[in-house]
Write a structure and sequence with these properties.
Blueprint: E1 8-13, H1 15-32, E2 38-44, H2 48-57, E3 62-70, E4 83-86, E5 96-104, H3 108-118, E6 124-132, E7 145-149, E8 155-156, E9 172-175, H4 177-180
Parallel strand pairs: 2-3, 2-5, 5-6, 6-7
Antiparallel strand pairs: 1-9, 3-4, 8-9
The structure holds 1-O-pyrophosphono-5-O-phosphono-alpha-D-ribofuranose, manganese (II) ion (MN) and magnesium ion (MG).
The site of magnesium ion has 3 residues, from loops.
Length: about 180
């Protein structure tokens, strides 16, 4: 069979829960950035779904830019080695930057990105992450907008991949161990 659902053990966050949560977060972003133009920076590729849905729930003006970094490759564990595959098109000088991520796992990717962005002269830098795994944290990330804290399981869907697959699932689900072990 090739049904993706046979390769999952549990739905962790449903499409509807994601939709509701992103609306709440978008309302907070609109309020916090009232009167300011925001530059949303999506971290490719995992953040594409969050970026698309968060951005469309906002009422205020935003620009969108993308940074492509990767620390996982085809494995299930973060290597801690962050590679830039595509840099921003925008100059961050004086900008209010909101980094949009699908998940904070070890925190190494965002820790590296925050340090990198801090040197580019932004007026402010905040983070919005749909998911966070508190038990997996190797570094603490100051994340202003968090969707859900989840257990330390291997999750896929809604942008999150295993070996580049499963990103197109509408829910966030736990990958069955037989798939990756
Ligand atoms: C994943 C995820 C986050 C990061 C989180 O990206 O999308 O960007 O790992 O892990 P960390 O907190 O342990 O650093 P990945 O490197 O797999 O690239 P992708 O977004 O293209 O899947
Ligand atoms: Mn990513
Ligand atoms: Mg990945």
């Amino acid at each position: 069979t090739s049904d993706i659902r046979d390769e999952l053990t549990e739905i962790l966050v449903t499409e509807e829960e994601i939709r509701q949560k992103l609306q709440e977060l978008a309302a907070r972003v609109d309020a916090d950035y009232a009167g300011k133009d925001v530059l949303l920076v999506g971290v490719l590729k995992g953040a594409v779904m969050v970026m698309a849905d968060l951005a469309r729930s906002l009422r205020g003006h935003v620009e969108m830019d993308w940074m492509a970094v990767s620390s996982y490759g085809a494995g299930t564990k973060s290597s801690g080695v962050v590679q830039i595959r595509k840099d921003l098109d925008s100059d961050l000088t004086g900008r209010h930057v909101l980094i949009v991520e699908d998940i904070i796992d070890s925190g190494l990717t965002l820790s590296w990105l925050l340090e990198n962005f801090a040197s580019r002269g932004a007026a402010s830098i905040e983070v919005c992450a749909l998911l966070r795994k508190p038990e997996a944290a190797k570094v603490q990330i100051d994340c202003k907008y968090v969707g859900f804290d989840i257990p330390n399981a291997f999750v896929v869907g809604y942008g999150l991949d295993f070996a580049e697959r499963y990103r197109n699932l509408r829910d966030v689900a736990v990958l069955a161990p037989h798939v990756y072990s």
